[in-house]
Amino acid sequence: MKNYKVYPLFDITIEKGEGNYVYDTDGEKYLDFYGGHAVISIGHSHPTYVKALTEQVSKIGFYSNSVVIPQQEELSEKLGKLSGYEDYNLFLCNSGAEANENALKLASFQNGRRKVIAFKNGFHGRTSLAVAATDNPKIQAAVNFTDNIQLFELGDLEGVKDALAAKDVACVIIEGIQGIGGINDPGAEFLEGLEEACRATDTVFILDEVQSGYGRTGKFFAHQYANIQPDIITIAKGMGNGFPIGGVVITPKFEASFGQLGTTFGGNHLACAAGNAVLDVIKDEDLMTNATEIGDYILSELEGVSAIKSARGKGLLLGLVFDEPVKELRGELLKKYKIFTGAATDPKVLRLLPPMTVTKADADILINAIKELV
Ligand code: PMP
């Protein structure tokens, strides 16, 4: 049988990872400024992570959610402490799309409404509701198109307020910082305005932190640069450092609807072992501080490079906006300098989302390569 799905962007087979580097089958070493798409939070094969997973799987990797799984409690406690959301509940699932699908359903369970407001250039996943709220018709099938979803420009508070006035919108969903769309920061003022408008109309306010969360921006969640407390926050990617795990962080006021959520694999022993190890390393190695320091260092070292028109984002979720599409630049960075970087739907944006463990020395390799190429 052929693997039908394979459409690799790079003709490279990665067989090993260590820290901020990955290695191909010829032993060639690559600096990872892509993080496997913002997934590698604590570096490849971190010893704490390897030990936690190995020990867990040697005892038990999976048993059904119908029994007590203490590792889930441990995870929610650690997540609450590190994020500051200690009064919230955690529903564990397996991916970002699943987290958003559950968040959107939960909002509608809660208030019985069926409309959703989302934003242009936003991305929330590929399952039915998540993809319907995503600004990309190319990945939507006919069955996903629905009049229930309305997309607004980021920053269009008046438009959103008008739409909420009828009190028939179940929820507003927005990324803490838009990732795939090109690292677009909604800004504190807009997020605060949205929250106020949601509160005034009993609309559920959902923050998608699947890409922008887990410390990458220097705070645990990107929205914590604003003064808001969303009803629901969705997480995945960096949460498992490569092990599939997602979560929905939910205010207790939705407790009555929690029983309507469910999943077979979510919150299994092994996934929780991965999740707990990630949180331990983020805390013990102070990786949020590192994310801020290295991100700021990259921006200051690249200041004045004339081909870069502007820089967006925070910490280690950065978008460098060039005069021209960055496809060739990314190719050169990979071929000539052995550096993986990320693209965006905005073709002129080079996306940087390395492990939060990257060092100044790693950053210098990228900075020098960009300076030599542009
Ligand atoms: N939300 C955001 C902001 C994302 O960037 C992504 C994935 N790129 C998703 C949701 C979907 O996550 P997953 O691919 O794990 O379903």
Automatic annotation (TrEMBL):
InterPro entries: Aminotrans_3, Aminotrans_3_PPA_site, Class-III_PLP-dep_AT, PyrdxlP-dep_Trfase, PyrdxlP-dep_Trfase_major, PyrdxlP-dep_Trfase_small. Pfam families: Aminotran_3. The keyword Amino-acid biosynthesis does not apply. Its cofactor is pyridoxal 5'-phosphate. Gene3D superfamilies: Aspartate Aminotransferase, domain 1 (3.90.1150.10), Type I PLP-dependent aspartate aminotransferase-like (Major domain) (3.40.640.10). One of its GO terms (molecular function) is identical protein binding. Keywords: Aminotransferase, Pyridoxal phosphate, Transferase. Belongs to the class-III pyridoxal-phosphate-dependent aminotransferase family. This is Acetylornithine aminotransferase. It comes from Reichenbachiella agariperforans.
